[in-house]
Amino acid sequence: MFKSFLRVHHTSEDVAVWGPMETRLADQPDRALLDAMEAEHAAIDPLLDAVDAAIADRESGPQRLGDVVDALYLSVAGHLRHEEDEGLRLVESVLTPGQWAAFGQDHRNRVGAESARYLPWLLQGASPETVAAILGRMPEEIKRAYATEWRAEYLDVRPWNPRIR
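The structure assignment produced for this chain is given below.
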């Protein structure tokens, strides 16, 4: 799920965020920050593939899996930190409300039928305040589905769920 939803998120960013920003920042000094963010995205997908390859390789995969997972963790954590510390400020200063809405729509379209798994997974372990803030931006039918169906179904299929039925 992590790999799938990370790729959805990055693809939506690449299409609906970085694309419009490239146009607006073509000759601006902030273009370097955008280029760095794009380069970080480009470094993550090969690491996801390397984790899959190590898992599939019964002979030498186990010896390299830990190093590959460490590299993936460091890459994703560094990118998120960079995105939160500098990238979001730039995005918010460049994208119009309509472009932000287009990103949200693109992301929703890519998640598609997986919304019933995505939203509970995304909100798992979040504080009640964070859950309320995120759900507060959602249409009523999504809030209702999350509260009445999706969350419980997600918890029921998790193999590590300590909840007894």
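Interim note for the steering committee: The two ends are 24 Å apart (CA to CA). The first helix runs from residue 2 to 24.
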